Amino acid sequence: MQLILAAILPVLVALLIGQMATYPYLTWHASLNKPAFNPPNLVFGPVWITLYGLMAFACWRVLQKPKNPAGRNFALVLFFAQLILNASWPWMFFAAHSPLLGVINIVPQFAIVIATMLTFFDLDRPAGLALIPLMLWVAFSTALNTAIWTLN
Questions:
Q1: Closest CA to 89 of 114, 116, 107
Q2: What is the pLDDT of residues 10-42, one digit of tens each?
């Protein structure tokens, strides 16, 4: 039970921190010029809830591994680094009203998500597989954030 909580609580906290910076600024976001590939707003909630669930599952799988195998601690450091970047992105993009700060955050975030996914694969295949949707979404979000920055 402790490992489940250790995986779920940080992910839930990241979700809530991000939402605190997103919802108050949706009107500002609606005023921005967006590319044609911008999905409807109602897509984002279900996608992120799914991604956060998969992140918690992946973290739980890796937390179950013995503490000594090579790469476990490094994989968890990467996981929590990407989670911190994930939670801080809405503060940089939405709360600061800065698509540029969003780009500055999401580019390294994408790289760390890839590194996390690969290290998770080495430790536990299902954990690595669970992060593929996150990697794909952050790749898409990087393109979207960059396009919004250039259009505004």
A1: 107
A2: 999 999 999 999 999 999 999 999 999 999 999
